Amino acid sequence: MGGRVTRVFRNFNVENRARREISKEKPTAAPRHRTARLDAMADSPEIKEEVLRKDDRFLTLLKDVYVESRDPPVRVKDGGGEHLPSKQEEKRLTKLGRLEGLDVKKVPKGKISIVEALTLLNNHKLQPQIWTAEKIAAEYSLELKEVNSLLEFFIPFAVQEFPKETKKALTSHKPKKLT
Question: Which residues are in coiled coils (predicted)?
Answer without folding.
Answer: none
